[in-house]
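## Example record

The block below lists the input lines for one assembly entry, exactly as stored, with component labels intact.
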Amino acid sequence: MSLNSSQVKKVMLEIGETVEKNKEFLTELDLAIGDADHGINLTKGFRAVATKLSATETDDIGEIFTLVGMTLVGNVGGASGPLYGTAFMRAGSYAAGKTSLIADDFVGILEAAIGGIKMRGKAEAGDKTMLDALIPALNAFQEALKQGITVHGALTKAVEAALAGVNYTKEIQARKGRASYLGARSIGHQDPGATSTYLMLRTISKAVQTQGQPEK
Ligand code: ADP
Ligand code: MG
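Predicted structure tokens for the full assembly:
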């Protein structure tokens, strides 16, 4: 079994629901080290995504991701819009022409997303950004697959690694984005973007565990 186009669309909508449920939480995190809009930004973006997705018939998963990315870029004012937007657009280029996804595609998608975020934001691991959830998640997923762990197990490991990454962001100083203006005062607070990335990955994992199993 694998994840088909309509399942991918559903996962995108579920990410929007998760973002909306965590709107206040993400905004509070951003209040501490930013400008208190991260939850608001993403909620606005993913509401627009839901509208766009409901109006498209495409089976091309690449087109679905590209639409999500372009909609985020066009509707999210903060830094996270172009960053997540680029991540999804890169995932869209990766998945162009595909009508189903398997586990190896999840690796390709995460690699593409990380590449896009790095290109757009010039951040690296340890700068206290969304990358500090995403990079550990990819590494853990790949490691688990290498060890012969099931895809579901590997997704669980990826989500655990993302959460550990979120917790790590509490210990480090921000070197990119608004939080970097605070210097050492950013230490002690978890990064909003790393947190939203973790929530997205957790939603993807839950959806895959209940909807379908990507093949190895
Ligand atoms: P803004 O900072 O413009 O208000 P948001 O509040 O929506 O935008 O998003 C803030 C999040 O964006 C941060 O918590 C961080 O994870 C992420 N971020 C900011 N700058 C960068 C960057 N250069 N590279 C990667 N992620 C970044
Ligand atoms: Mg903000």
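Residues 30, 34-35, 37-38, 41, 78-80, 83, 117, 121-123, 129-131, 176-178, 191-194 surround adenosine-5'-diphosphate (ligand 1) (CB under 6 Å). The two ends are 9 Å apart (CA to CA).
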